[in-house]
What we know:
By secondary structure, this protein is of the alpha+beta class. It has helices at residues 8-17, 27-44, 92-107, 140-145, 151-157, and strands spanning 46-48, 54-56, 61-62, 74-75, 77-78, 84-85, 124-127, 130-133. Helices cover 33% and strands 13% of the residues. Strand 7 (124-127) and strand 8 form a beta hairpin. This is Putative DnaT-like domain-containing protein.
Amino acid sequence: MPEFYGTVAAADAYHLARANAAWTGDDTAKQAALLRASVYIDGRYRKLLASGAWQSLFPGVKTEGRGQTREWPRTGAEDYEGHAIEPDQVPVEVENATFEAALRELASPGSLSPDFVAAQTIKREKVGPLETEFAVGNGADAAGSVRPVISTIDEMIAPVLVARYALPAVFVV
Length: 173
């Protein structure tokens, strides 16, 4: 199994086609960015359930089970239109989203998953006559607020996500 989604050559072609001049450097730096981006993709699309258990927002299950490092490939997966995704395939949506995330990681390592220390959170700052109050929540909300929301990546990967609901639930028909 690959450590990251896609290949450096595929990422190079992806960014060349989009004239992303920031995708530059040696293969070692690009591989590291792709690895950090893959970790981000896997973690970003998990949901913490009320029970305290984490659940993937990707359909199906890991093809090689618990021993598989990445979330993909998956067995029993379908896209949002019901088309089967082969159990040995990583969807192009996942690879392209990884390439987008890797571009950000190459430019600023660690930017997709910054550390958060609640005790260091500044709620209000005053410098001379100017005062700024920041919109930072408490606890888990505050930790989630430091992770960037990248609409491009969310929209690219949406076709291979599934909605997960905490049960019990009431549905009105």
